[in-house]
Amino acid sequence: MALVCVPIRERTAGGMVRAARAARRRGADLVELRLDYLARCGPKDIESLAERLRSVPAVATLRPEREGGRYRGGERPRLDLLERAIRCGFEHVDLELSIGRRELCRLTGLARRRGVRAIVSHHDFRRTPPVAGIVQRLRQCVRAGGLAKAAFTVLRPGDCARILGAARRARGRAPGAIVVGMGPAGTITRTLSPFLGAAFVYAGLDRRRLTAPGQPDIGALMEYWKVAGGPGRVGASTGLYGILGHPLGHSLSPALQNAAFRGLGLDAAYLPFDVPPRALADTLGALRAAGLRGANVTIPHKTAVMELLDSLDGAAAGVGAVNTIVRSNGRLCGYNTDVAGFVGALEGRGVVLRGARALVVGAGGAARAAVHGLLMRGAAVTVVNRHRRRAEGLAGRLGGTGITVANLRDIGELAGRSDILVNCTPVGMRGFPAESPVPPRSLHRGMAVLDMVYNPVRTPLLGAARRRGALGIPGVEMFLGQAEESFRLWTGKRFPDAAARAVLCNSRFSTSRH
Ligand code: NAP
After folding, report:
1. Does the annotation count 302 as an active-site position?
2. In CA terms, which of 15, 67, 277, 336 is 20 to 30 Å from 420?
3. Nearest-CA neighbor of 320 among 367, 379, 381?
4. Average pLDDT of 339-346?
5. Which of 343, 424, 454, 485 to mutate to test the pocket of ligand 1 (most atoms within 8 A of CB)?
């Protein structure tokens, strides 16, 4: 399981002690003392630091300039200082692969005898080599007698997949290896490293004190991982799941799915990946290389992701959108569980779809799932949309004789004649007009009204449905249904209801079902 390590770079020993204690208070498992940042670093300074920080697990590092550090002295005195750090009893010592085999083996041997764990590190500031080159470096680090740590400059986002693929391939022979991509484009290699068995994840003490480009600060790291219980819960055997979308701010899926994994005692973690449209292919490539087992996909990637997958199931191909990815025999397959969530929300409330007249308002991705589900169950569907041509496009794509496109101005009359009304627009959602997308007086007794909007749970449309004696079904019931179906596809298990209830009670969402 990954430990959180905060590198400390201060000019004075006193500053280092204070910063190391602050790092522990902020949740660090250990600190890396960057001795090369000290204005003065002699044997006595190292001994005094070891003594003052006896209760703080620490890595002693004295990085030379050639490896991106600040140490400018000769190599012999540097090795003597590292030897002193080993003899002083630091928990770990970082030794660069470039020290050379003979001297390195001597120091790692000494560390072993003194009960100190040696980290053998390699830094490439020019580029990321091919997978075989990375694996070879990791093996050299292990052969030298240490825990392997390698960092490569990421020039283009595609490099991340190579780093993660190599880390995955080397897992057996380099247990605990820490392999990261340096640079802003390499951040995902740091995020995913615990799933590849990395012994440590590195984070700066705060935003002003980062030691490598692309490194997060410990506050941001802890906040990001909170929903999955922290990187300390994740190891090489932990299943990697997540959601890809942009923006992801209010998504309830991470809390819901992590609660379900925990509820069943499964070794898995579900993380949010905020992916701008241009980065989708590279991010999915990195996740694939890291062994992604499953994911949800949301706005704006549901259609674009399709061409990046190895296969599509019937509903996803029919709807033309994917909201769930499942890994099976190393291949990524796209599913659409919005359809099952939608149909389940209606049928769960006893609504009969066969032969029903349904009015769908909207023609975006959610409307496509609704129309597909309604047609599949034998309902006759009418679609209205602000831009009629989009509704016509939807009807053309989903085909079938049971679908009609009508004018938005007739919406009241159409609703008055319908058994089922589905709102697939954001009207009524927080940040949009707080109004009903159909004239309230067109709603009537015996009608089922499903509002896909789930934030807030009680929308103006559902309020109007209740007042008019119609059956109102909140969008959160469909949301839960699609989440349960995704979970079942990934794990083959039933979503634990108690987990969902706990998450919904603790969030600003709630539903009559719970
Ligand atoms: P989308 O692909 O962007 O489509 C949005 C649709 O809403 C389009 O038909 C658009 O019409 C229409 N629209 C947007 N603003 C409007 C306005 N001010 N007045 C009238 N029509 C408007 O989005 P989506 O993925 O389909 O999502 C639609 C809604 O469903 C969102 O609120 C989303 O949160 C919700 N949803 C809920 C669930 C669930 O599980 N409950 C699942 C998926 C989606 P034009 O074509 O004319 O622009």
Report:
1. yes
2. 336
3. 367
4. 97
5. 424
Take atom 39 of ligand 1 and give the residue whose Cα is closest.
Answer: 479
Full set of structural domains in the chain with CATH: 3-233 (3.20.20.70), 239-338+486-506 (3.40.50.10860), 344-479 (3.40.50.720)
Q: What is the mean pLDDT of the chain?
A: 94
Mean pLDDT, to the nearest integer, of 109-135?
96
Residue with the smallest CA separation from ligand 1 atom 20 is 386
Per-residue tokens: 62: 């004295």
Distance spanning both ends of the chain, measured CA to CA: 35
Distance CA 84, CA 504 (A): 55
Does pLDDT of 436 surpass 70? yes
Can you point out the beta strands (E) in 406-500? 420-423, 448-451, 471-474
Closest ligand 1 atom, residue 298 Cα: 25
Give pLDDT, residue 89.
87
- Give ligand 1 pocket residues (Cβ under 6 A): 299, 338, 341, 362-367, 385-387, 390, 424-427, 429, 432, 452-454, 475, 478-479, 482
Mapped onto helix, strand or coil, the DSSP state of residue 422 is: strand
The secondary structure of 84-133 as a DSSP string is HHHHHT-SEEEEEGGG-HHHHHHHHHHHHHTTPEEEEEEEESS----HHH
> How far, in Å, from the CA of 365 to the mean position of ligand 1?
7
**CA nearest ligand 1 atom 27, residue:** 366
Report which ligand 1 atom has the smallest distance to the Cα of 454: 41
Q: Give pLDDT tens digits for 210-231.
A: 877 788 999 999 999 999 999 9
Give the pLDDT mean for 408-433.
95
What pLDDT is attached to residue 507?
Answer: 65
pLDDT tens column, 470-512: 999 999 999 999 999 999 999 999 999 888 877 777 765 544 4
